[in-house]
Amino acid sequence: MEIRQLEALSAVVTSGSVTAAGRLLGRSQPVVSRQISDLEDELGFVLFERTRPTITLTESGAEFYLEVRGILADLQQLESRVLGMRSGQIRPLRILATVDLARGLLPEALAATDRFSPAFRQKFILEEVVHEVTPRKILEGRADFALINLPIDTEGLRVHWCGQAPCLLAVPAAHVLAARDPIPLEEIQDTDVITLLSRYRMRYHLVNGLVQATMGGMRRHIEVGSQQTALSMVRAGLGIALIDPFSIQGVLLDGVAIRPILSDIQYRIGAVSQKTHELPEEAERLVQGLHRYVRTTFPQFVDTDVNGLQLQPRAADSALSTV
After folding, report:
1. Is the pTM of this model over 0.90?
2. How far apart are CA 204 and CA 153, in angstroms?
3. Residue 152: left (phi > 0), alpha (psi -120 to 50), or beta?
4. pLDDT at res. 315
5. Based on the number of CB atoms within 10 Å of its own CB, is 74 exposed (0-12), middle (13-18) or buried (19 or more)?
6. Domains of the chain, first to last
7. Which band of pLDDT confidence, cut at 50, 70 and 90, is reported for residue 292?
């Protein structure tokens, strides 16, 4: 399988015909046709339904093309990076983060870090992960570091910092529970609840206490893919949701009341990178800046080890202030 064959496939899909693809690539129509035919022979399935005047992808072709698009995009990024290296440009800093942290905590934390350290002006690329950041994505080198929720298998990873803060309860502003502060879990009997999908690692920590409290009385249980969606559900009056304190940072909470709960349900986050790769200086500064922001913004945040055991108070705050 050759890159030129994949380029031919992409050009045919983009332009709608082999002839147009040839013009797009600067190749003759017979050359593009042969490259597509050779690729189909190698794959063992047909890529296109050849019906005039246009050609369309087969089901297998469409599935294969989705994979090809990612490969070609990566190659374009690599080519762009090579050009940057030739011209002496600094390599962009790459960050991985879950959608909830990328849209909640991260913007405010980056802004605070930027204000604290005005010299931080390096280009960085933020990749939002729809579900959860996995060790494989980090070990594949897709980012310099990742801001993640825990627990996670840390084999091969360097944990720069991690810690936890108690979860909160999101209720509709007009709900009777909005008048309670804090809210005892036993008072949410017969209340519809909204939780994260079962594929999330943190689901047990976020849901177990909530579901146990509503056992035998809960009317409805809605599972959603993100905490932002959960907040939208709460705003619409569809139920209450257990929310981590980090994802609601800077988020519009119109129509939603956020209340502490009388329960020890903790949410853990941290910053990790590949153990075999030293972080660039700018990345290290940013990692420490994020840590400083979390520690100063969330009073109930405590540093822990990777197993969730609280660390002894230390003089790290003064050290962070010099970063």
Report:
1. no
2. 16
3. beta
4. 47
5. exposed
6. 3-86 (1.10.10.10), 93-164+267-320 (3.40.190.10), 168-264 (3.40.190.10)
7. very high
